[in-house]
Write a structure and sequence with these properties.
Number of domains: 1
Order of helices and strands: HHHHHHHHHHHHHHHHHHHHH
Subcellular location: Cell membrane
Strand content: under 5%
Keywords: Cell membrane, Cell shape, Membrane, Peptidoglycan synthesis, Transmembrane, Transmembrane helix
Largest sheet: none
InterPro entries: Lipid_II_flippase_MurJ/MviN, MurJ
Radius of gyration: 23 Å
Protein name: Murein biosynthesis integral membrane protein MurJ
Number of helices: 21
Membrane topology: Multi-pass membrane protein
Shape: globular
Helix content: over 70%
Length: 540
């Protein structure tokens, strides 16, 4: 278990720095293009296109299939050398082809996601897309190399490489503002040079991110070489497994497509695509730091245990990972909810709009715990080579997302349309996770659910006074009229971040104190992670 703790600490540290620099990147980006306006939504749509394709590649094929298959390939006579070389050759060809097709279809892709845009907004979005879509190739290589490193228990580089992307982007966006000014949220403000600098900066960062992973490849002990002989090493099995996850992610993208088109109705004067992107970034901060950092090493171990038919240990792995992840995710959701207004102020031009946009973040946070638990539950199915079952419970989620998005405009004004769509997504994710847990419990013959439920109960009890304490601090610093929200300009964004840290920090401390009073055994996870981050002190 010490190796899992060490891996989680390395991943957590890298993810924390990556996400913090990612927040700074977004702050600088929105200072350059604005958080509300047709130009900012056009860039957000174009820059999201390669991310959507990356999601299909990573979640639909790599995470679901590649790690278990690479673990199995280690038993080959050559230690998986031939399998991985063929896999990388095939992957490179697929990524190049996908990028080429996307470039050809750029105008149609932008329209598909933003049919409610004005003609000049669609034209600007398409111009951005031509610069952003090459990210598909670099995202693909980054994911393929990174997942292979994870499968070989080289966990750090995959998490730390995005920091370089964020630094390059921050520098590029600052250069943009130095050359062209800031807050360019109107379509008519943009010319080809400005588009090239903005879009080129975003793509350059992803390219460097992928290149850095190659420097860590020697730690796998594998030697890659181009190999176009794709028969005879099990790639057919990979394709069969990936077909279900591919369809699953396509369904998710179609659900996202419905959301994007509906929310684009609010573009211009109300929270829309850009605000949803920013809120999702904040939402993903605790998810990435805790769910991914703790769950990824467990996933590798679960894959190893399933390969050895050690099902009792799989049940224990799943239960322990759920309890460890939930310990941090419950308080993260509560702390961010009470600090939602200053957290949203980081991305908005003024405090008044932060109050209007904060419900988007709160509605996303409703789904933080279910999504975090799904991370490990869904991957346990993948470890057993079962990609069909996750497809079906994801179809339920996607159906609910589409229905809720279609209903949202009928129930709320445009000013809260983005929040309503976010809430629909969270509730759909809750249903999906419940179904997934029930099916996994049936498959494994148990999941230690009574013990997990007892832990969750302790976390919720501790989170209630923690939430009130955080809310009290928010009111003490002035609430919506205080320094954390009402300040103007870039200073206001930075003070919003400081206010979020103060409110959330107090909530987190109270949470730990209550758990200590309750003598929660899960606190050993916290002390273990602290020891991993401070090895010198721990050894004295």
């Amino acid at each position: 278990m010490s190796s899992l703790g060490r891996a989680s600490a390395i991943l957590g540290a890298g993810t924390l720095i990556s996400r913090v620099t990612g927040l700074v990147r977004t702050i600088v980006l929105l200072a350059a293009i604005g958080s509300v306006g047709r130009a900012s939504d056009a860039f957000s749509t174009a820059n999201q296109l390669p991310n959507n394709v990356f999601t299909i590649i990573q979640t639909g094929i790599l995470t679901a299939v590649i790690i278990p298959q690479i673990v199995k390939s280690a038993s080959h006579k050559d230690g998986g050398q031939a399998f991985i070389s063929k896999l990388f050759t095939l992957g490179t060809v697929v990524f190049l082809a996908a990028t080429g097709v996307a470039m050809v279809l750029a105008p149609w892709l932008v329209f598909m996601y933003s049919s409610q845009f004005t003609p000049d907004q669609l034209a600007l979005g398409t111009a951005f897309a031509y610069w952003c879509l090459p990210q598909i190739f670099f995202y693909g290589l980054y994911a393929l190399i990174g997942e292979t490193l994870n499968a070989k228990r080289v966990f750090g580089p995959y998490t730390w490489a995005p920091i370089a992307n964020n630094v390059i982007s921050i520098i590029g966006f600052i250069v943009f503002m130095m050359l062209f000014g800031d807050n360019r949220n109107h379509v008519e403000m943009w010319d080809p040079t400005m588009i090239a600098v903005m879009g080129g900066t975003a793509t350059l960062g992803i390219a460097v991110q992928a290149a850095l992973l190659l420097l860590a490849w020697r730690r796998t002990g594998l030697h890659l070489r181009p190999d176009f002989r794709w028969k005879g090493v099990g790639l057919g099995e990979v394709g069969k497994l990936a077909s279900w996850t591919f369809m699953m992610v396509i369904a998710g993208q179609l659900a996202g497509l419905a959301q994007s088109n509906i929310v684009s109705k609010a573009s211009g004067d109300h929270p829309a695509g850009t605000i949803m992107m920013a809120a999702w970034l904040v939402f993903m901060l605790p998810y990435s730091i805790f769910a991914v950092s703790i769950g990824t090493p467990y996933f590798t171990q679960i894959a190893e245990h399933t390969a050895e038919d050690r099902h009792d240990q799989v049940r224990g792995d799943v239960a322990r990972s759920i309890r460890a992840i939930s310990l941090f995710i419950v308080i993260s959701a509560v702390a961010l909810a009470v600090a939602s207004v200053p957290a949203t102020r980081i991305f908005t031009e003024n405090g008044a709009f932060a109050e209007q946009a904060a419900p988007v973040l709160i509605c996303y946070l409703v789904g933080l715990l279910p999504l975090s638990l799904l991370f490990i539950v869904q991957r346990t199915f993948y470890a057993y080579g079962d990609t069909r079952t996750p497809f079906w419970f994801t179809i339920v989620q996607c159906s609910l997302i589409v229905v809720s998005a279609l209903v949202a405009p009928l129930l709320v004004p445009l000013s809260q349309l983005a929040a309503a769509v976010a809430l629909g997504q969270s509730l759909a994710g809750l249903v999906q996770t419940i179904i997934a847990v029930v099916l996994l419990r049936r498959r494994l013959g148990g999941l230690e659910l009574p013990r997990v439920a007892l832990s969750l109960g302790r976390f919720v009890i501790a989170a209630i006074p923690a939430g009130f304490a955080g809310w009290g601090v928010y009111l003490l610093i002035g609430g919506a009229d205080g320094w954390a929200v009402a300040s103007t300009g870039m200073t206001g964004r930075l003070l919003g971040a400081v206010g979020t840290g103060v409110v959330g920090g107090v909530a987190f401390v109270v949470y730990l104190v209550v758990l200590f009073v309750l003598r929660a055994p899960e606190l050993s996870v916290v002390s273990g992670l602290v020891k991993r981050f401070l090895p010198a002190r721990a050894s004295r």
